Amino acid sequence: MATLGAALLMAGAPAQAEPKPTVKQLKKELSALQKESDKLITEYYNSRIAQQKADKSEKAAREKLATAQAVYERESAELRAMAVSQYIGGEPGQIGLLVGNQDPTSLLGRMALNQHLVALQDARLRGYAQVRNAHQQAKDEADARAKELTRTVGDLEQRKKKAEKQIERIKDKIDQLYSAPGVRRPDGTWVPQLPGGSENITPRMRLVKQLIQERFDPPNGIGCYRAIQDGGEHPLGRACDFMLSRGGAMPSAAEVERGNQIADWAIKNAKRFGIMYIIYRQRIWHVRTGTWRTMSDRGGTTANHYDHPHISVY
Fold first, then answer.
1. CB-based contacts of 120, cutoff 8 Å, min separation 6
2. Are 306 and 201 in contact (CB under 8 A)?
3. Mean pLDDT in the chain?
4. Which secondary structure element, helix H or strand E, spans residue 40, and what is its range?
5. How confident is the model over 65-82, as pLDDT tens digits?
């Protein structure tokens, strides 16, 4: 009975949940996924190069065939002319001059010349046939390669998309393992923090900066603390600018999209990380309203935040 009771207790006990992965484990998984994605992209571009080489080879074969076709048509015309001449008992053009029309022995010369010409024509036509066959083989190989590449590229694209989605899921998991430091009030705002460290920014701003830097890798630097008292959060260590270009230049389309992704991430994680507002491309988003609104023109690319998203935390 005691054994049975113990067995029933064990059967009724809930199974232990698997431990949540650590940041280190998730980053290792993310690194492996990114390597796999890079490998897929490399295979994709290698396939494109192979296709371009096949196309080039097929084009060269077509050009060679066109040349051979012209030779074939010319030689065929001459052969037909010679046959007609022989049928009516004479030779066209220079053939008649070479063998003579009056000499009784010209028949032997005419026969020898005809055999020579026929042999020459046969050789040229065999050459044409070889070019034609080589062209057809190249064309068949190129067509087969194109079909194979279509299937391969389609498969690679699907695998690449799956890898990218998995990478995004891992990045989201990494974000969820972090908690914004500090105290959050019941109304959703946060108790202010003092800046510190060599960067003179608050712990909350430091966390947001770290996560954006790791996830999006802004290419032209991140500017946070500045001493100028302009009424904003920079001198309080509660704001950072994630630069997409340098020297006030308009960023490229790819960098504009990077800025959009940073802004979208900040909106998605605003409440979790104590983000107060975002400014990007002459618009401002505030956590209280949850919507974008247009800002007045401040007179320049940087002043209007076209070359960087600005993020402020509580």
1. none
2. no
3. 81
4. helix 23-88
5. 677 777 767 766 766 676
Rounded CA-CA distance 106/99 in Å is: 5
Nearest in space to 138 (alpha carbons), one of 66, 48, 65: 65
Phi, then psi, of 166 in degrees rounded to 5? -65, -40
Q: Report the distance separating Cα 180 and Cα 182, nearest Å.
A: 7
pLDDT band at 28 (very low <50, low <70, confident <90, very high): confident
Give the span between the Cα atoms of 124 and 99, in whole angstroms. 24
Neighbouring residues of 271: CB distance < 8 A, sequence distance ≥ 6: 188, 287
* pLDDT level of residue 94 (50, 70, 90 thresholds): very low
83 by DSSP, 3-state: which? helix
Task: Decide which of 283 and 25 is more confident.
Answer: 283
CA-wise closest residue to 210 among 174, 246, 234, 182:
174
Q: Give residue 112's Cα distance to chain centre.
A: 67
Residue 106 backbone class (left: φ over 0; alpha: ψ -120 to 50; beta: rest)? alpha
List Cβ neighbours of 197 (8 Å cut-off, separation of 6 or more): 206
| Distance of alpha carbon 294 from alpha carbon 296, whole angstroms | 7
Do 70 and 154 contact (CB within 8 A), yes or no?
no
Residue pair 276/287 in contact (Cβ under 8 Å)? The answer is yes
Whole-number Å distance between alpha carbons of 212 and 49: 35
Q: What's the rounded mean pLDDT across residues 138-142?
A: 71
Tokens representing 168 are 């995004």
- For the chain, the farthest-separated pair of C-alpha atoms sits apart, in whole angstroms, at 133
User: Helix or strand or coil: residue 239?
Assistant: strand
Q: What is the pLDDT of residue 202?
A: 98
Cα-to-chain-centroid distance, residue 65: 36
- Alpha-carbon distance values, 247 to 251, 280, 290 (Å): 10, 17, 31
